[in-house]
């Protein structure tokens, strides 16, 4: 009996296959298979690139509609700077979703981290390096608590993380007495490199231009390598066309953004660094392959020898750590911590995470898709606001985008699964 090796992300499973028999008899050649027209939607370039092209199209439409009010680089960089905590929370959600776990406590963890960052430094007077270590330890403990409840006690992840989220939020309220923490009121200023004019948390805090250009060049090279990997088994014509498209895109970006690259703030640089490290960890290591295998098919992953429980535990801990980093960046950006400051970021964070499944991907969660999804959400909302739509519509936009992303992801998963 022949066997066909079916690929389920990173876990291979052997299943029986019937022997091919031509319609004309055992000795007749089989006619060439005709692909139905509906399978056009399963072409990789259309599935993985269509949503990204839609993103570019929306940006172009806004630029034509609103002119320099939207197309200017500095306001869009400001949007990215202000949404760094949201995108970091989106990464936290993405890591959990890769392992098929929902962590609804990430917004509360961000709030707690913001309060601890301000309070331990300005109220308690602890050295800032020690403050960051304590925040990291709290994040690890919070993630471990989530993992214990879900992985060991077997409580549903929605219920468990909803409960721990309430605990994290309650701890921040008890510690702050329900008040806003501000260094000016607490008597000690935050480190000048961390918050304030020209600092890490300020839009005016920018690295030397050479650093930004090197990072920009590395990102372009990474895109080139990604494209090369996608078309490595394609025809020569396709590879040449893809290489030419990459060269044209690189030239356009270098010329068009030459005046804006030096204006990129430290916060965006930090975001790109975290995204790069996470992408390498999850996309190019055995740990990442096992994480995807765990989320794709837990039973098959177990049969393949993957320690599923450990990967789920690591997913919760990593999610909590990223959420805490988002809270630290909130403290740096705002210079204060307010009650449930991260609560409003939960919806856009999950919307960005689910957008990753249709942004340069066919139904698969990934980090760079979350970054692009977060930027897409920020710029779509901001473009409508610039165009005269009230700010109060932002939550509606985020909700609609989340529903659309989940629906499209489900369609793509169904179609590619049926291929």
TrEMBL record:
InterPro entries named in the record: ABC_transp_permease (IPR001851)
Membrane topology: Multi-pass membrane protein
Keyword Nucleotide-binding attributed: no
The entry's keywords: Cell membrane, Membrane, Transmembrane, Transmembrane helix
CDD domains: TM_PBP1_transp_AraH_like
Localization per Swiss-Prot or TrEMBL: Cell membrane
Domain of life (superkingdom): Bacteria
Keyword Transmembrane: yes
Segments for region (Disordered): 1-36
PANTHER family for the chain: ABC TRANSPORTER PERMEASE PROTEIN YPHD-RELATED-RELATED (PTHR32196)
Protein name according to UniProt: ABC transporter permease
Lineage per the UniProt record: Bacteria, Bacillati, Actinomycetota, Thermoleophilia, Solirubrobacterales
């Amino acid at each position: 009996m022949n066997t066909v090796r079916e690929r389920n992300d990173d876990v291979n499973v052997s299943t029986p296959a019937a022997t091919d028999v031509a319609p004309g008899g055992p000795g007749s050649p089989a006619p060439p298979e005709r692909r139905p027209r509906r399978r056009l939607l399963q072409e990789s370039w259309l599935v993985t690139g269509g949503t990204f092209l839609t993103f570019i199209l929306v940006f172009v439409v806004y630029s034509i509609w609103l002119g320099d009010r939207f197309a200017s680089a500095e306001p869009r960089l400001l949007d990215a700077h202000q949404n760094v905590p949201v995108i970091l929370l989106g990464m936290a959600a993405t890591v959990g979703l890769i392992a098929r776990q929902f962590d609804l406590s990430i917004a509360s963890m961000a709030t707690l981290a913001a309060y601890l960052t301000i309070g331990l430094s300005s109220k308690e007077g602890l050295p800032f390096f020690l403050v960051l270590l304590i925040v990291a330890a709290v994040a690890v403990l919070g993630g471990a608590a989530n993992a214990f409840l879900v992985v060991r006690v077997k409580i549903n992840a929605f219920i468990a993380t909803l409960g721990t989220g309430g605990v994290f939020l309650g701890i921040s309220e008890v510690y702050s007495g329900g008040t806003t923490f501000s260094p000016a009121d607490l008597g000690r200023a935050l480190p000048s490199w961390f918050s304030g004019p020209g600092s890490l948390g300020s839009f005016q805090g920018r690295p030397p231009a050479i650093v930004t250009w090197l990072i920009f060049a590395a990102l372009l090279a990474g895109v080139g390598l990604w494209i090369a990997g996608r078309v490595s088994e394609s025809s020569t014509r396709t590879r040449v066309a893809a290489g030419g498209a990459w060269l044209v895109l690189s030239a356009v970006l270098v010329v068009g953004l030459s005046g804006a690259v030096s204006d990129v703030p430290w916060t965006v640089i930090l975001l790109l660094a975290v995204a790069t490290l996470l992408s390498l960890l999850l996309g190019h290591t055995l740990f990442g392959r096992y994480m995807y295998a765990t989320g794709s098919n837990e039973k098959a992953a177990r049969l393949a020898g993957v320690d599923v429980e450990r990967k789920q535990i690591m997913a919760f801990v990593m999610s909590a750590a990223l959420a805490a980093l988002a809270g630290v960046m909130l403290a740096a950006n705002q210079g204060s911590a307010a009650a449930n400051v991260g609560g409003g970021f939960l919806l856009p964070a999950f919307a960005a995470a689910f957008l990753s499944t249709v942004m340069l991907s066919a139904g698969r969660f990934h980090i760079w898709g979350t970054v692009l999804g977060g930027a897409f959400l920020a710029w779509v909302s901001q473009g409508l606001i610039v165009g005269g739509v009230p700010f109060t519509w932002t939550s509606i936009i985020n909700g609609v985008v989340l529903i659309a992303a989940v629906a499209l992801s489900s369609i793509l998963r169904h179609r590619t699964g049926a291929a």
